[in-house]
Amino acid sequence: MKTKEEPHNEQNTRRDFIKKSAIGLAAFTIVPRYVLGGQGYLAPSDKLTKAVIGVGGMGRGHFGYEGTQVVAICDVDQNHLKQAASMLDKGVKTFSDYRELIQLPEVDIVHIATPPHWHGIMAVDAANAGKDIWCEKPMTHTIGEGKRVVEAVKQHGRMFRLNTWFRFKDTFYGMGTTVKPIKKLVDSGMLGWPLKVTVSKHTGYDWKFYWVGKDHLEPQPVPPELDYNAWLGPAPYKPYNAHRVHQTFRGYWDYDGGGLSDMGQHYIDPIQYFLGKDDTNPISVEVDAPQQHTDAVGIWRRITYTYADGCQIILDGEGKDTNVPYIEGPKGKLYPGFKSDIPDLERKLAQFPDPDPEIVEFSESVRTRKKFALNEENGHRSCNIVNIGLAALRLGRSLKFDPVKQEFVDDEAANRLINPVMRAPFSI
């Protein structure tokens, strides 16, 4: 990361990067937001303000959410920064170093739209700086990073939103309904218990297996507009290749985890919600997949998660079961389109209470200081499920997990993936 603008070329070494980063870290002192403007500070217009870190396609697509005003943006790619700036008011501030951005006293919300290997560090730094946080999925790249985000948000009294919304609005993929009626059905007990949920193309969920990496990348010159060292940040140094960055970064373990990491929290978080398991995780995961490359993410056939009470989540990557219900219990089944083998389901379901209301606009959460529907705690738990599966895929074996300690049982190699060593001088 850089403390001032300077040309970048492919001759920069890792030693240069670490030296510059150490100087930069020493130069920046994160000041808590309450010192700068008071806890709950609002802009003079009484309109919530937002700063966006990472203004590629995802970041630019989120400029207009919930009536907030974008006042600052940051990106390590100057082309992204210029394109984003052209879409906003001329007074918007631009940065190539996010640590400068999060110190702005006029910023209420920091929106993190970077690759996942940056999410944890940036969220913790934003919380330390007294900012409320809006983070893209997956919440964090590792289980350990997620635990640190939960701690930092709690310590500094911040509000946190994870940006996958299917637990509280929008039609839930192949189900033809929002998640609320599904939760109402599960809570009613009409399906029985335990339940098995199958997520596959036949129940409406595409695992995007085109997000795979290439197992042999030739080094290429770094484009002049990109600060590649800053893009890598805490990730291990690897020679630049265009396939590592921007849209195709999802295919490499150092930064993401393929289709499972890209779509997993979209699909799995609502399941945690309607199963009533927001405070726990599965105790085991089984994988059926080809041996994964050490650098490039590959495909998988099937991942099976099992909870302590016998509930299961089946991720069917190859679409093996063509007529499988989305939810199956001992008393009934629910299929895509909210169809069921339970006669007269909708009339029977109307007799049961609706799920408890939630805060589903982040602006309300920021103003009232009440937790958002999908926050750092339940978001961390659903992200854990993604990261448990990724660990099993990378190691090529089934794993046992302790949801209380949030660590793998009797598996040193798996536990090393909880808090992997970050490239110096980064830590969380």
UniProtKB/TrEMBL annotation:
Keywords: Oxidoreductase. Residues 51-162 form the Gfo/Idh/MocA-like oxidoreductase N-terminal domain. Pfam families: GFO_IDH_MocA, GFO_IDH_MocA_C2. One of its GO terms (molecular function) is oxidoreductase activity. Coiled coil: none annotated. The keyword Oxidoreductase applies. Residues 175-427 form the Gfo/Idh/MocA-like oxidoreductase bacterial type C-terminal domain. PANTHER family: BCDNA.GH03377. This is Oxidoreductase.
